[in-house]
Each structure stands twice: as C-alpha cells, then as structure tokens.
Amino acid sequence: MKGRMISPGKVEGEAIVSSEPIGFYGGIDAKTGTVIEKGHPLEGKNVKGKILVFPSGKGSTVGSYVIYGLKKNGVAPKAIVNRETETIVATGVILAGIPCVDHIEIDGIKTGDKIVVDADNGEVNHA
C-alpha cells in the first residue's frame, strides 16, 4: 500500500489495530505503553514493540509529548500507520524518531498481521 511518509524509518512487526482514533494524552500510559482510555477498543492492550495502526489521532497537543515519553521509556510502538496523521501525532513521531506513514487504507490490516512499514518510501505491506 502506498501512502505518505510522516517520519522516516523501516521496520517489520506485528500490527495492533484500532478502528477508532487514539488520544495519547489520557489514552496511553507513557510509562507502560498500555492503552488506558476507558471504553476504547484497545483498552488494556500494550503498544510496546508493535506497529500501531489507527485512523487518526485526537485530543490534546500534550499527546505529542506522550508519544515522545513512550519512546524515552522504551515502551513505544515500532511504527505508526494512519489513514490521516494530524499534527499531534506527526509532531510526536518526529520528536521520538518513530517511523510513520499515512494515507493508508487501514481496513486491510488486522491485529496480529505481520507488516512492513517502509516510511522512507511511504509504503506499508504485509510481510
């Protein structure tokens, strides 16, 4: 799948997919990488070492620093794939050095799929 590079890098890993937007501030614990937003489809799941796939971000600009905190604490996702990356997620992945691609039709990716994110070329493919 061809998309747009937001933050460079190339990784392969297991997808963890949400059909709903993610708000990092108050939504993911920066110390553990666990989704803590009540009622979210990924509540209780951990993003550490996974490729986090979701439609778009939501919420406070502090979310950028939560993404950075995830990386600093060693619990960040390997990469982020979005349908549309808005400025909060874009700023966070760039600060943290997490590969990110958007303009991807994420409905073709399921939790547990092995995927390759080649952000340098704006590509996301099944492994």
Q: Shape from CA axes?
A: globular
Helical residues, percent: 10-25%
The tally of beta strands, per DSSP, is: 7
Strand and helix order: EEEHEHEEE
Tell me the Rg in angstroms: 13 Å
Strand content: 25-35%
Largest sheet: 7 strands, mixed
Give the class-level CATH name: Alpha Beta
Low-confidence stretches: none
N-to-C terminal Cα separation, in Å? 12 Å
CATH architecture name: 3-Layer(bba) Sandwich
CATH topology: Glucose Oxidase, domain 1
Q: So how many helices? A: 2
Task: Report strand order across the widest sheet.
Answer: 1-5-4-3-2-6-7
What integer is the average pLDDT?
Answer: 97
Q: What is the fourth-level CATH superfamily?
A: Phosphohistidine domain
Secondary structure category: alpha/beta
Number of domains: 1
Walkthrough of the structure:
The protein has 127 residues and is α/β, with parallel strands linked by helices. It has a single domain, classed as Phosphohistidine domain (Glucose Oxidase, domain 1). Helices cover 16% and strands 25% of the residues. It has two helices and seven strands, in the order E-E-E-H-E-H-E-E-E. It has a seven-stranded mixed β-sheet with strand order 1-5-4-3-2-6-7. Helix 2 (87-96) links the parallel strand 4 (79-82) and strand 5. Helix 1 (63-72) runs parallel beside helix 2. The longest helix has 10 residues, at 63-72.
